[in-house]
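Friendly challenge for the regulars: who can give me the structure tokens for this chain first? No prize, just bragging rights.
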Amino acid sequence: MTVLARLGRHFTFWSLVALVLGLGFGIAMHGSQTPWATTLDGLLRPVGRYWVVGLQLTVVPLIFTQVVVAVMGTEGLGVLGLKTMALFSAMLVVAGAFGLLVAQPLVALYEVDPAVTAALRANVPVGQAVGEGVGVGHAVLAFIPPDVKKFLLGGSPLPLLVGAGFTAFLARRLPRGGRDRFQRTVQLLSDATMTVVEWILLFAPVGIFALTFGLARGAGGGALGLMVAFVLIISTVTLLFTGLHYPVTAALGRMSLGEFAWGVAPAQLVAASTRSSLAALPALVEGGRDRLSLPVSATGF
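First reply, four minutes later:
Bragging rights claimed.
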């Protein structure tokens, strides 16, 4: 059992507490120029950024190893691949149509203050290059070409997926001994990557607090109002759409709705605090593997 699995619901609880405290303290210190508030802000900003960067840097090895292990260890791969792509395509089409019908009217009801939007953009670190604007990290990583930084952050997943799949298909054609050694090596790398992910996620409450504190301190109460409106709109649309497919997920996956919700909670918390699907990917794989006990064929795809 992994560390996160042992922590269970306590991990989710403290991450939620960190989210609320970060917003509360940030709003309370909005506009404050006292030395200790400025010092605290200066200390927390790099913490939040490095936590997100740490998660993003696991995306490349995570995708590569998960795909290779899934391809090499799955029989009937072609059928599973076709079913997976068909499922993803159908869900995207239905979600897109649902969003157009429901989300647009809700968004039109809320007018955003341009000043709040500008403040939020100035205080959201996600999307910046690795170490950008973070002291020594920026100086060291400034030598890395932008395209390499984008790749390291998982910004080009399609070539990585294709390369990993092609590598696995070639490895399946190796002699039995060489194929087994290659598969064991990649499995070890996959396990090592997941261990790193788990340790990074252990600091999720700290990272979430740092990110939400900086966001709320920069934008103040306007950030809270915007986030409340955003949360209400997204929650409404998501809950309605979830109501359509949760029963299907529970029935086909042969699990309860509570088990499924508990399994995806870490990924949802990371997504809520970072606004980054790539940063949430490691937590999603970890939740599927350790909380829901899904096979690598599922988490890999």
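Residues 40 and 150 are 30 Å apart (CA to CA). The chain has a mean pLDDT of 76. Your move, everyone else.
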